[in-house]
């Protein structure tokens, strides 16, 4: 833009007008060349001011009047009497129900007014206390199972219940019933059995089951699951049933019916421990044999004897084991009873095939003692094994007369054998 253009009406230019200003000392000087004038903006029109509105008249609001509930008229005497009667009847009904229930509970707990009934009651080893209570209810000895269980828990008698067979009756209250099925119950049913000498473990288990003392299954489970802490078993390397063979002492016992397998076996083993005493152990050591080896000899004697010749049979066993003269024997016992032990069932006469069964119990095939006892011998056979008769016998055979006959040579033995109609050793 030219100076001519920028001249004002008074003929001066903007630069000249700037120079006319008297700037205060100390202020920054302005360079007129830097000032750029722009076209002036038109003035804005002021916004119209609204007139204040008159306030709306406030309505005179009054809260609605509440409708007054119509009051019922006073209750009549009949209505009041009826209400009181209903209330009293409800109270009496509830009280009567509770009283009746309480009386029934008390009657069951105290065994009041029950018809007389005697029951042979069995608690098995697998029963939980709830099962026992359910059986008592089923037999009619209690009516309220939950109440009985609560009473047993409160009196701490539930844990005293023991497996067994008991004589119970309906005249016994809750306390008497619990005492009657405990391990100290005087009414616990017992069974007396005699275990014969020479029975195997399998035969003893069958006998115990038949007497109702313990099942074979529970006894076998006890053999596998229980560690019996007896010194005489610690040296036995055989496991399971074979490890107990020879150590279940034959005797007469009285057991509680439905006893546990472990308890029964503990009793039999404990009896053996008391019978095979220190004097016997000392004698075995003098002979140069262990307790287990003496039991093996005794078990063979028990199976071979007719009852009166145990010491003679023992002499044959000792002579054969220590033989240095008879090469034909070669230290073999050749006892058929050891072969019978291998078989499932005992046979009257053994076949050639059976006599040659490959088993460590077969003394026909292998020299020395079998690996374990073949039955559970009695005290007489144990003593015979410890104190054999002094003889030169190496052979014996059961004759047609029912007695055993003993020989010191093979020729005399074979001659007698040929003469027997039964021809059985």
How is this structure best described in words?
By secondary structure, the chain is an alpha+beta fold. Among the domains are: 69 residues, Dna Ligase, domain 1; 86 residues, no CATH class; 141 residues, no CATH class. The strands form two sheets. The protein has a four-stranded antiparallel sheet, covered by helices on one side. A hairpin with a 5-residue loop joins strand 5 and strand 6. It is rod-shaped and about 130 Å long.
Q: What is the succession of H and E elements?
A: HHHEHHEHEHHHHEHHHHHHHEEH
Described by its quaternary structure, the protein is single chain
Number of DSSP helices?
18
- Give me the Rg, rounded: 56 Å
- Tell me the strand percentage band: 5-15%
| Largest sheet geometry | 4 strands, antiparallel
Number of strands: 6
Distance between the termini: 156 Å
Q: Any idea what the shape is?
A: rod-shaped
User: What structural category do the secondary elements indicate?
Assistant: alpha+beta
**If you average the pLDDT, what whole number results?**
83
What is the helix fraction of residues, given as a range?
Answer: 40-55%
- Unreliable sequence segments: 1-8, 18-27, 34-39
What's the arrangement of strands in the largest beta sheet? 1-2-3-4
Q: Which key phrases capture this entry?
A:
425 residues; alpha+beta; Dna Ligase, domain 1; two-stranded antiparallel ribbon; disordered N terminus
């Amino acid at each position: 833009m030219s100076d001519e253009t920028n001249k004002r009406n008074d003929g001066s230019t903007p630069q000249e007008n700037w120079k006319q200003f008297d700037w205060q000392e100390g202020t920054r000087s302005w360079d007129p060349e830097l000032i750029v004038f722009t076209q002036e903006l038109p003035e804005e029109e002021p916004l119209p001011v609204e007139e204040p509105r008159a306030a709306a008249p406030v309505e005179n609001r009054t809260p609605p009047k509440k409708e007054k509930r119509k009051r019922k008229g006073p209750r009549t005497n009949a209505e009041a009497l009826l209400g009181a009667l209903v209330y009293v009847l409800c109270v009496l009904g509830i009280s009567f129900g509770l009283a009746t229930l309480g009386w029934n509970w008390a009657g069951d707990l105290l065994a009041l007014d029950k018809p007389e009934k005697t029951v042979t009651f069995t608690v098995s080893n697998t029963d939980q206390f709830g099962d026992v209570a359910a059986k008592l209810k089923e037999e009619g000895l209690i009516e309220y199972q939950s109440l009985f269980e609560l009473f047993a828990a409160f009196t701490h008698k539930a844990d005293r219940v023991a497996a067994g067979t008991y004589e119970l009756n309906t005249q016994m209250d809750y306390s008497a019933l619990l005492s009657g099925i405990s391990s100290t119950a005087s009414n616990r049913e017992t069974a007396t059995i005699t275990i014969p000498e020479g029975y195997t473990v399998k035969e003893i288990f069958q006998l115990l089951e038949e007497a109702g003392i313990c099942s074979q299954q529970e006894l076998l489970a006890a053999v596998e699951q229980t560690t019996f802490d007896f010194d005489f078993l610690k040296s036995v390397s055989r496991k399971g049933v074979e490890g107990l063979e020879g150590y279940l002492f034959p005797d007469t016992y009285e057991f509680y019916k439905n006893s546990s397998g472990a308890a029964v076996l503990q009793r039999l083993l404990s009896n053996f421990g008391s019978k095979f005493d220190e004097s016997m152990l000392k004698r075995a050591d003098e002979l140069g044999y262990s307790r287990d080896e003496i039991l093996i000899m005794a078990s063979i004697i028990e199976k071979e004897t007719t009852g009166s010749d145990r010491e003679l049979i023992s002499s044959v066993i000792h002579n054969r084991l220590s033989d240095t003269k008879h090469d034909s024997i070669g230290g073999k016992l050749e006892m058929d009873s050891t072969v019978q032990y291998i078989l499932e069932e005992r046979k009257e006469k053994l076949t050639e095939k059976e006599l040659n069964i490959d088993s460590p119990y077969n003394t026909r095939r292998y020299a020395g003692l079998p690996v374990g006892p073949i039955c559970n011998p009695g005290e007489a056979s144990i003593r015979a094994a410890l104190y054999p008769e002094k003889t030169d016998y190496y052979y014996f055979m059961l004759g047609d007369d029912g007695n055993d006959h003993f020989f010191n040579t093979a020729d005399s033995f074979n001659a007698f054998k040929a003469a027997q109609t039964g021809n059985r050793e």
